[in-house]
Amino acid sequence: MPAAQDFWASSGFRLLERTPGGLAATDAWLARILGREELAPPPEAGPRERALHERLLRSPRSPVGSEEIAALEDPDARDNWRAFLAFRARLAAQPTLEAC
Q1: Which of 28, 37, 46, 49 has its CA at 20 to 30 Å from residue 78's CA atom?
Q2: How far apart are CA 70 and CA 49, in angstroms?
């Protein structure tokens, strides 16, 4: 039987875990999101933002405290990371993407 075509390769579908209840986020899938251009620190990003991004790429479920976000150099970066962390928390609170 031929391999199934990955129609939505950019979604990272193949990195999701298939469970009886649906699709679950994996560290690899979260890391793929973190690797996207939208979350990659821009050239002018400060060292704290770069360190946070690198740590989360290695360990996407690593805890991030509000004080760590508040210490980021750029207010726009703080807003972006708060949005990503809220998304990550919402995913973690549900067993599957469908439930989320």
Answers
A1: 28
A2: 11
What pLDDT shows up at residue 11?
Answer: 80
Q: Which helix (H) or strand (E) holds 14?
A: none
3 state SS of 38: coil
Gap between the Cα atoms of 96 and 76, Å rounded = 30
Closest CA to 30 of 15, 14, 42: 15
What is the percentage of the chain residues whose pLDDT exceeds 70?
93
Instruction: Name 74's Cβ contacts closer than 8 Å, sequence gap at least 6.
Output: 45, 46, 49
pLDDT at 7: 63
Residue 2, pLDDT > 60, answer no
